[in-house]
Specification:
The complex is a heterodimer of chains A (314) and B (323). With 314 residues, chain A is mostly helical. Chain A is 70% helix and 0% strand. Chain B has 15 helices and no strands. The chains are: A mainly alpha (314), B mainly alpha (323).
């Protein structure tokens, strides 16, 4: 009984010498699950640095870690960058497109979500609750449900295959509005708004001069979550950009690489100068994840302190 | 929730602050405030209109059109024809049944995994628990296509770290592994791997919100760690479990990327329209039957909208203020 209390409440006891069966079982289970999660990822990253001959021969030892070298990665890169008409280079083009739509979408999302979240949290007007309700509802619905209707709309506007409609659509980010709403609800007392009004500031001026300076945390979180959602979005670019190979994002570009691999489509692959086996596909995927890693490291500080804010989103 | 208390405080302070001002000035102040609110909301509302409401209305209008045929090249009003087309399509009920098969494998594993691992992490305080939570979160960072390519690597018996298991199961090529019968299990594995991490963090956040005194009280009553987890923690995080179940259910109806790409990897040996979203995609991009594609997306919209309404009203996670 006393031990249970200690285990639950005093972090300093965790390193203690008391080992019960229950505790051992817990730690063994957790480490086992962690291994199940981590080994595939280690093996996959190792794959990006191996060569096809070793992979086919099953060489390289445990998870292929023994077969890793930068020479292999350099060769794989020459294959990836060689993909595409007129000497290749499509992969870099796709990365560039992904950067354009992800950053553009995130900028619009921040610019729209911060003032909207502030207005919903601290200003009173009719239909405020209705808009909050619509925001919550669109936030919990998977965004793929609207892709076909969005395609019909963009198609009617004659803009299929162009980047700008994708950017605008990605800028609609109700989760960001909810984040900003919670941020102003919890960090900005209503008295602050009242005081600014008494000082004679207009409503817009209050937002820019009082609310914006204290919303760095919300801006960082909205930008981060929006960027990640945009970068990994697959269905929207697939519906809107597939028709134009030059305007693809990297997520659907990798699909094109898979389709050109001799592993899955020998007939298409036979007509190509470059050979995209698993090491090349793994390297392309690994490289496409690096921007996500970068924004994660950049936003880590804000993510840690904002844990409670992000707690409701799946 | 804190939002409720803040709201209550504001409500309490409002009449006191407003009392000395004359009625007309107060009303003018309120109009200014409302005008400010709408101005600040304008960019968001514009996006909501362009990327949410207009496409839905346009899809609704399109679904009531008639699809042009060689005999009747002009589109026109077709009533519910497109819905009839969709319902009568032999793949329509199949695709929902497929989703059902995936869910029945995936949802129980997912929920047990989320709750079990979140409870284990919560029972492990200190650095060990923190490290484990981080490790469990890592696969979640591999969203979408990255998770898919990782699974292509895992499912290929020739090079997978679990290749010996697959070979013992009688599979020698990836095309053999990715068969129609195995699809629910493969999809369940993919969805589990990419989704579990975020949900552990979310449910763990719910567990951290339980006041310490409750654990102290149950320990004083003689409960051990298992009993605390089963009788105290589990009932307290029920709203979070319901939230996770509904969100994942809604997500399941939208399944697209994984079956779509698995078909490509299997050399086209899988059905092209395994899920409802794939069917809608096929109506739009293979048959160019936009009314049917629109009808399909309206049907899916109604389903996810209902689940969404359940989440907002029934999960108990959103404060009264937000409904």
């Amino acid at each position: 009984m006393a031990k249970a209390t200690l285990e639950n409440h005093a972090p300093e006891v965790v390193g203690s010498k008391q080992w019960s069966v229950g505790r051992l079982a817990r730690i063994v289970t957790m480490v086992f699950v962690a291994a199940l999660f981590v080994f595939p990822i280690i093996g996959f990253v190792a794959m990006a640095f191996r060569n096809q001959e070793d992979v086919a021969a099953g060489a390289g030892g445990f998870l292929g870690l023994g077969g890793m070298s930068f020479d292999n990665a350099a060769f794989s890169w020459s294959q990836i960058i060689g993909f595409g008409p007129n000497g290749g280079g499509l992969f870099l083009r796709w990365i560039g497109n992904s950067l354009i739509v992800s950053v553009g979408g995130a900028l619009i999302a921040v610019a729209a979500a911060i003032p909207a979240g502030y207005a919903l949290a601290r200003l009173r007007f009719r239909f405020r609750r209705t808009i909050l309700f619509i925001t919550l509802l669109t936030m919990v619905m998977p965004n793929t449900v609207l892709v076909i209707p969005l395609f019909l709309e963009v198609s009617a506007a004659g803009a299929v295959g162009q980047l700008w409609p994708v950017i605008v659509i990605m800028g609609f980010f109700p989760f960001g509005v909810y984040l900003a709403y919670i941020h102003f609800m919890t960090t900005m007392p209503p008295e602050l708004v009242e005081a600014a009004r008494i000082d004679g500031l207009s409503e817009i001026a209050i937002f820019f001069q009082v609310a914006t300076p204290i919303s760095r945390q919300a801006i960082a979180l909205v930008a981060f979550f929006s960027f990640v959602a945009n970068w990994t979005n697959f269905f929207l670019p697939l519906a809107l950009l597939t028709s134009n190979s030059q305007n693809k994002t990297v997520s659907i570009g990798i699909q094109e690489l898979i389709g050109a691999s001799p592993l899955f489509n020998p007939t298409v692959a036979a007509g190509l100068d470059v050979k995209l086996y698993m090491p090349q596909l793994a390297l392309a995927t690994f490289l496409s994840m690096l921007p996500l890693l970068a924004v994660f490291l950049g936003a880590q500080r804000f993510l840690m302190s904002g844990q409670t804010v992000g707690a409701v989103k799946g | 929730m804190t939002t409720d208390t803040l709201e209550a405080q504001r409500a309490a302070s409002r009449p006191a602050a407003a009392a000395p001002t004359p009625g007309r000035r107060r009303r003018r102040a309120r109009i200014t405030e409302a005008r400010g609110g709408w101005t600040l909301l304008a960019p968001y509302l514009l996006l909501l209109l362009v990327a949410g409401i207009i496409p839905i209305l346009y899809a609704l209008a399109t679904s009531l059109q008639r699809s042009p045929t060689p005999l009747q090249p002009q589109a026109g009003f077709g009533g519910f024809d497109s819905f009839v087309t969709v319902f009568n399509d032999f793949r329509f009920f199949d695709s929902f049944f497929n989703i059902f098969k995936v869910m029945i494998v995936w949802l129980p594993i997912m929920l047990i995994g989320i709750v079990g691992l979140a409870l284990l992490v919560h029972a492990s305080r200190g650095r060990f628990g923190g490290i484990m939570r981080f490790i469990y979160y890592v696969p979640g960072a591999l969203a979408g296509i990255a998770n898919f390519v990782l699974w292509v690597y895992l499912l290929n018996p020739a090079q997978s770290p679990i290749g010996f298991l697959l070979q013992n199961g009688g599979f020698s090529t990836i095309k053999g592994v990715v068969s129609l019968d195995n699809l629910p299990f493969i999809l369940a594995g993919m969805l589990f791997f990419q989704g579990i991490g975020t949900w552990i963090v979310i449910v763990n956040g719910g567990l951290n919100g339980i006041p310490e005194e409750i654990f102290e009280a149950s320990s004083l009553d003689g409960a051990n760690a298992w009993q605390v987890a089963w009788h105290v923690k589990l009932p307290m995080i029920r709203p979070w479990i319901g939230y996770a179940a509904l969100m994942n259910l809604a997500y399941g109806f939208q399944l697209f990327l994984e079956p779509y790409l698995l078909d490509q990897v299997a050399g086209g040996s899988l059905p092209d329209q395994y899920t409802p979203t794939q069917l809608g995609f096929a109506f739009a991009f293979s048959n160019y039957n936009f009314p049917a594609a629109a009808a399909m997306s309206i049907i899916l919209l109604v389903i996810t909208l209902s689940i969404g309404l359940l989440i907002v009203f029934r999960s108990g996670l959103f404060g009264e203020e937000e409904k």
